[in-house]
Amino acid sequence: MAFDTKLLEIIACPVCKGKLRFDKENSELISTAAKLAYPVIDDIPVLLENEARELSLDEVQKWNS
What we know:
Layout: E1 21-23, E2 28-31, E3 36-41, E4 44-45, E5 53-54, H1 57-64
Antiparallel strand pairs: 1-2, 2-3, 3-4, 3-5
């Protein structure tokens, strides 16, 4: 089973409450507003700030383009 992208319509970044985008290649949910990437483990998003990694400036720019 794969991550259900329909979830993106109802979940939000827990830090900034903004929209999340799915990075299929890295299996992460991306919040450019909070500059965080949340892992998706076994098709389950882990929306905990302490589990997220910080996005680099280059990554933020990539996702915003």
